[in-house]
Amino acid sequence: MHKKPTIQGPLILKMSLFTVGLLFSICSFSQYTDIINSNNPGNSTGAYSVGKRVYQIESGFSVDRLRGVALQSESLFNNGNLALRVGLFSEVIELIYEGSYTMEFSTSPVPGGKIGIDQGFTSNRIGAKIMLFDPFKNPNNRPINVYSWKKNNGFRWRNILPAVALYAGANIGLESSPYLIDNPSFAPRAMIVTQSHLTPKMVLILNGIYDFIGSETLAEKTIIASLSYAIKRKWSVFVEGQYSILPNYEEQIIRTGGAFLFRKDLQFDLYTGINFQKEPSREVIGLGFSYRLDRH
User: Fold this and answer.
1) Which of 21, 56, 118, 280 could cross-link with 66 by S-S, CB 3.0 to 4.6 Å?
2) pLDDT of 144-200, one tens digit each?
3) Distance, first Cα to last Cα, the chain
4) pLDDT for 20
5) Does the pLDDT of residue 242 top 90, yes or no?
6) pLDDT for the residue numbered 19
7) Fold of 17-294
8) What is the C-alpha separation between 202 and 235, in angstroms, rounded?
9) Torsions phi, psi of 23, nearest 5?
10) Averaged over 138-143, what is the pLDDT?
11) Inter-residue contact 165 to 131 (CB < 8 Å)
12) DSSP symbols for the chain
């Protein structure tokens, strides 16, 4: 089992809200967009890839505070997160590296009330994502009404039809991590991703994740639902719920925050979150950025 709950590494290509309107106007036989699309902020992953010959970095720093009433303990987890995404072979295939390194400051249980310090990787994984179905490739799924702007930009039931992608990868090199007990040097990870453009400004992303497949002590099943909304061309907000089941622990987390498009290839973000458990209680705040090198 996990030694203690820790922040998970960045989960999930969340389509940046800044690209949503653009996607509705593209004859979509390519997943590439003129504006960066990022998984930041939050832990969800979008269905679309960055595009062929696009090299993207998504990084951030977060502080996660866990407080246990029974042990009168408090721990601060300072997390550095990094994701590298590359589109090499096809518009629908993306290679992904994700890593998270944590430095922990704990006030208990340490004799004499001294501060304990621990550090190590909480995630280190590689994988690939492939698009299985893209509703934008069929114009009949998104018909244009030349007489009504409202109908084209409002909610329609057919907008629920999602893009679908599949991720397969593995956790590697974590056998010495102080935050994972009996961790194998190699453990598979799988994820199914759906992404629905409910309106040109609103996107719903669902993730079903099975992590550390085959491990009796670390196997983790997670469901994430993320709803994003574009306020203006450069601003977007989101709310995200996560439910995780581990061998001896369950957790429900909600996150919210926003992102700002500084340039078409550079995005900044900020988010916060809490869990619904009293033991331990958990609060997190984080900030980050996403940048791409566009050779599409």
Assistant:
1) 280
2) 655 555 555 666 778 889 999 999 999 998 888 888 877 778 999 999 999 999 988
3) 43
4) 37
5) yes
6) 39
7) Porin (2.40.160)
8) 13
9) -60, -35
10) 65
11) yes
12) -BSS--PPPPP--PPPGGGHHHHHHS--S----SS-----SSS---S----TTEEEEEEEEEEEEEEETTTTEEEEEEEEEEEEEEE-S-TTEEEEEEEEEEEEEE-SS-GGGPPEEEEEEEEEEEEEEEEEE-GGGSGGGS---TT-HHHHHS--GGGGPPEEEEEEEEEES-TT-TTBSS--SEEEEEEEEEEEEEETTEEEEEEEEEESTT-TTT-EEEEEEEEEEESSSSEEEEEEEEEEEETTEEEEEEEEEEEEEEETTEEEEEEEEEES-STTEEEEEEEEEEEEEE--
Q: Which residue has the higher pLDDT, 280 or 30?
A: 280
Residues 6+ apart with CB under 8 A from 75: 4, 65, 66, 67, 104, 105, 106, 107
Domain residue ranges of the chain, discontinuous segments joined by +: 17-294
- Asked if 213 contacts 190 with a C-beta cutoff of 8 angstroms, the reply is yes
Q: Is residue 210 over pLDDT 70?
A: yes
Q: Which two tokens stand for residue 21?
A: 């309107």
Two tokens at 286?
A: 């984080």
Please compute Rg for the chain using Cα positions: 20
Q: In degrees to the nearest 10, what's the CA dihedral of 106, 10, 292, 30?
A: 180
pLDDT of residue 204: 96
